[in-house]
Write a structure and sequence with these properties.
The chain is of the alpha/beta class. 33% of the residues lie in helices and 25% in strands. It contains nine helices and ten strands. Strands 1-8-2-7-9-10-3-6-4-5 form a ten-stranded mixed sheet, sandwiched between helices. Helix 1 runs parallel beside helix 5 and helix 6 runs parallel beside helix 7. The longest helix has 14 residues. It is globular, with a radius of gyration of 16 Å. The model has no long low-confidence stretch (mean pLDDT 97).
Length: 230
């Protein structure tokens, strides 16, 4: 099995085989918590206008997403697992758009098998990939705002790659140390309204969920995300 670690939207565009689009802070952590809160599916899109248009087609839905880390005007929720974990989404369709993660899914046009990933379900992704044993795996770290390398996304990619290769390595200290690096923004008092400290801890709970987020491209070029237990 050949494993490649790529970055950003251009990495998503080049990704082949079984592809995992990784956004730890916070898109695909939020997606996992949304399913755990009862959502029946998530529709991922790359533009806020598309999200508003999609809402017109679904009666029981909510809009979730951000631009510049803040909730988009007119949306129900921002890109915060702290918000989602306190919300009952039973039976609802979540329409999600973010700066990096959902754009990565849209751009992964060459992927044969597409997943969304984060630290909270990394172990489930490993289990799934080992079970299907594909010839090629692309792990795409989407980065901060899709432009700057993000240590949490690259770390998650390393974790998945190590798991697939049956390498025994304890990543917990490096996960904890994210608080001093890329995760430090969650502890800035000026960000507490849209990016609280609890987001950091919720996004770094390794293997909290035993399911994958399997992506299916729709006829309208948006992405259906489905929860699949493994």
């Amino acid at each position: 099995m050949k494993i490649k670690i790529l970055e950003f939207a251009d990495g998503a565009e080049r990704a082949k085989g079984t592809t995992v689009i990784i956004d730890v802070f916070r898109a695909f952590s939020v997606a996992c918590y949304a399913f755990d809160s009862g959502a029946v599916r998530i529709i991922a899109t790359d533009e806020a206008e598309k999200a508003f248009n999609l809402r017109n087609s679904y009666q029981n839905c909510v809009l979730v997403g951000e631009r510049n880390e803040r909730k988009i005007e007119g949306f129900d929720f921002g890109n915060s697992p702290t918000e989602i974990i306190k919300t009952d989404l039973t039976g609802k369709t979540v329409i999600q758009t973010t700066t990096a993660g959902t754009a990565g899914l849209i751009n992964a046009v060459k992927a044969e098998n597409l997943l969304a990933g984060s630290i909270v379900n990394a172990g489930a992704i490993v289990k799934y990939i080992k079970a299907i044993n594909p010839a090629a795996v692309s792990l795409v770290a989407m980065g901060y705002r899709g432009k700057i390398s993000a240590e949490e996304d690259l770390l998650c990619a390393e974790m998945i790659a190590a798991g697939i290769r049956n390498k025994s390595e304890d990543f917990q200290k490096r996960i904890n140390d994210l608080r001093l690096g890329s995760g430090s923004r969650f502890f800035n008092p000026g960000n507490i309204e849209f990016s609280p400290p609890t987001d950091f801890f919720l996004c770094t709970m390794k293997d909290r969920f035993n399911f994958i987020l399997k992506a299916q491209r729709r006829l309208d070029e948006n992405i259906d995300l489905m929860k699949v237990e493994v």
